[in-house]
Amino acid sequence: MFAGQIITGGLLLVLGRKLFWLYVALLGFAAGLTLASRVFNVQPEWLQLVIGIVFGIIGAILAYFFQEIAVALAGFLAGAAIAVALMSSITGAPAPTGDVTTWIVFFVGGVVGAILAVMLFDWALIILSSLVGALLVTQGLQQSGLIGWVITAVLFVVGVIIQASLEKPHWRHHTTTTATNS
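The chain above was modelled as a monomer; its predicted structure follows.
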């Protein structure tokens, strides 16, 4: 699973904005996998993966057909994942499953992420996908504490820089003047 986290995190770091549907699908997969394994303790592992894949497919379909809903959902999932990861990093232990505090952090982070995603679409996607990608890579490398924070911060900055540089200006109206001879 560690290699999967590193690959997924790397894709989000570099292409989170460009591959919006993939970003939402990966977040859906991660959310489904987390719900199946941590919240509902689904067994066996292959069933957890199937649930994650189903959530990922639903996320990709939402992203393709209902972009605004998908933006809010992706922002919610990213915000929730970031909030729980930060809580775990601060406490130095995995977030306790089913704990009221974990759920409050999950929902507050989710709401903040959804609001940011809707209000600042392009930059929210760049920032959230870079942060989620950096966290996934750091988790995949099994780094925590100060080293984990440094790796996450450096990867986050690199991800934002790369994605911002890939953004092309969107021109709404381009006029050209042609001279005509009489």
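Residues 169-182 have pLDDT under 50 and may be disordered.
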